[in-house]
Fold these 4 entries.
Entry 1:
Amino acid sequence: MGGAVSFLLMWLRAFSELGALLIVGNRPPTVGVYMFELFQSSGAETSVPYALIVATIGIAFSGLLYIISWRRG
């Protein structure tokens, strides 16, 4: 249950950061902005596979950092 709540809070925070970035940065070239514009133009069918790829890369990178820090500590 705690993992699901953490995931939801992480997603909500990332979404709010994207909104702030869009307001202040006026369409900066980031992955979040690209996926948001892809969703706006093409819908979920096109943007969800890219979002899953980015999420998989993020989870793999986080897991790698966790394993490295666990071995050293």
Note: The two ends are 27 Å apart (CA to CA).
Entry 2:
Amino acid sequence: KELLTEWRKFVNEVGDPYSYYTPSHWRQVFSHPDTTIDTLIDRLIRNAGDISSLLYPDDPEEYYENPDGWESAVEKDLEDINNYARVWFKNHEVKEEDEDKAKAIKTFVDWFNRNIDEMIEVSKSEDYDDVMDSKAHKILRYIANDETGNMLVALAPQLDKF
């Protein structure tokens, strides 16, 4: 358990040592004209998955070991999501066939920004059942667990209601 705690401190301080690409690398990728909207969706889902696993870990004991560490990691991942989407939309014209995906991304990012504080508060409540019952957590898990991006596009129209 101590080793795991030390590892988390290390990762929080220097970032994921197994991650080969930095956020600045991804910003360059998303500014490149050949980068598709599907690449953006893939990256957003990966970051959303990271956030979901921090807000809703498999082991409830992991929740309370280092609340400040996971909260700052969640905020960093959300900042990356915002930056990647902003950079992609700034540098690309949305193709007609990608309009639904573009709208879904914008809706998802807006929803995420509106709900993240509440999700963090629920996660910090130290009641794992509250997290399991949280609609926002469930929505995030559904989107993050679907690597195809179909769930993001399918759920986006309903996200404005939450």
Note: The chain is about 75% helix and 0% strand.
Entry 3:
Amino acid sequence: MKYRLTIAIITILILVANLTMKLDQTVAGSITMILPALIIFPFAYESYQDKKWLSFTAYSLVVALSILLTIQNIYRFYMLSH
């Protein structure tokens, strides 16, 4: 429960910062892509503990894809800026 509350607060703060400070598009995109992984991770962990393999697989796939997309976005930004 604490984890979900912490992630919700961080998400709200990031969105407010993005609206007020006009963050760089790459930074905002990376934050937006990693948020699903952070939000869904507790559900994947609970499914794993309850041995609900189908939901665990689905949640884990979303987490993995979110992390891979974030890495790809950061890599593209790095390659374009250098």
Note: Residues 24 and 42 are 29 Å apart (CA to CA).
Entry 4:
Amino acid sequence: MQIDVAGTATQKCARLAIAIPAYGRASAIARSVAKMADQARADDLDIVFYVSDDTADSSVRDAIQPLLDVGLPVIYRQNIPALRHDRNLVATLLWPTADYVWLLGSAYTVQSAQLARAYHFLEEQDLVFVNNHFPDHAFVPLLQGEAALDCLRDRLWHQTLTGATIYGNRVRNWVARSGDALKLVSDFPQVSVMLGFASDQELKIGVFGQPTLYASGSDTPSYWRSRAVDVFVDHWSEVVYAFPTVVPPDDRARVVREHSARTQLFNTTNLIGHRLTGQFSWRSLTKRHFREAMHLPLWKLLLLLVLPVPILKAGGSMLAQIKRRIGTS
């Protein structure tokens, strides 16, 4: 694998690295890094930024170059050939030299007002769960033992978001030691890391309860939305089932269903869209964990499959208008 490394920042051991696995979204990444770097400098925070770029062209490199030219603490590399999503995410997690690594998806950035607060919250945790849209906003500096495992199970749906977790060095060292034995489920390498570590080691978790992430303004279509049924039925259930010492058999169905129930990924509006694109079909019902992954009742799922496409299109448009009106009222 050839790596093209650019920039003048040195890989000193920073207190915190914000590490971004990139594929496209060049301007959004550059804006996000520049804003966070300016805030870190204003608050005198020891933060270095890493961008691991899987993009085939030079768009991300070109967008990042002005930040490197002015000496911001940014370290960039382009992966040739591309590592692809899962390998790039794990490689990006392991790359920085830092006490903690905040693995941040390229579609998100950190609210300026929360960056210093999150930075100073770090204290001996293996994982810090950073809130994006979890309803409980409580701050919990440290959970251990069964309390940490309960927290991991309850928030696992939320931690699927790349950006909602900061990793301590015990976790990263464990991943590096695991090597080829590391169990990674497709599309969910970060969840695999959390569950794998918790299966093998005593876990210490901190919960940073204030909503802290926001979308960085990219207009790139979501990979997850385009493959939602395959990803969040097949692969999501697979990762939940893969670590029985953390998620026991009698709790698996609840944990799997929690993602759809909490995020509304498979609500009526979205399932209409998935039906129109062919993702949601009669064949979906044959998936082993389909019913577990759906929070809607079976009669509604069947109705959405039976109704003719023109009626579904009209119904989808009507629901979208209602949501827009509610949102602006």
Note: The first helix runs from residue 26 to 42.
